[in-house]
Write a structure and sequence with these properties.
Layout (H helix, E strand, L loop, with lengths): L1 H12 E4 L2 E5 H4 L5 H9 L7 H8 L6 E3 L3 E6 L2 E6 L9 E3 L5 E2 L5 E6 L9 E5 L7 E5 L5 E2 L9 E2 H7 L4 H6 L1 E5 L2 E5 L3 E2 L12 E6 L1
Antiparallel strand pairs: 1-2, 2-5, 3-4, 4-5, 6-10, 7-8, 8-16, 9-16, 10-13, 11-12, 13-14, 14-15
Amino acid sequence: MVEDASIMVYQQVAKEVGEEIHFDLKKLKPLPNYKSYLYQWLREYGFSAWDDVYDLVDSQSGKQIFSSHFRLLKNRDYLVLCPLDFTDSKKEYFITKNQKEVKVPLNLSICKVTDISDTSIQSIFVDETKLQYPLVLRHWREGDFFQPLGMKGKSKKVSKFLKDEKVSLIEKEKSWLLCSNNQIVWIVGMRQDERFKIDETTKEILKITVV
């Protein structure tokens, strides 16, 4: 019966998003003995420091604890369970001139076009003469800033932009930047930089798309 109750409550408060499980604390905390449910759900993921797990429920957003292969993160009104990502967050990937596609760390298509035909956030159009190769794909770092397209040259910290866009802490870690000579061209899939946009003097348009 205890196991049946655990399954029923799990279906009410947990949402599986890809490899992540999001536990809704607004639904979980009012339940009597909610700590016992957390124990039932999390023990199979290798967690054993139960006081730390229970303290996480009322901690500030951004706090996290770890088991050997998973982490549990407080993100606003949720506890997020996800596998540990062992990829090197400092690694950089280079894109050479005339390269038409990128497969790692994400899929990009790169091609020259004569006009703007796609206005989705999955694509950007840049003045190729403003780029310096090789371009670099890397994760964002504290202190990074850019000039968001449409803000008339005003600078903004990448961290502030991601916060304003309500990007989750885990998604922030997964965010990629496309850079040219240490300047951000694109927060990939989110916002282009003003400095590389096409204008009336542009002769070579480069379209870059997340595939």
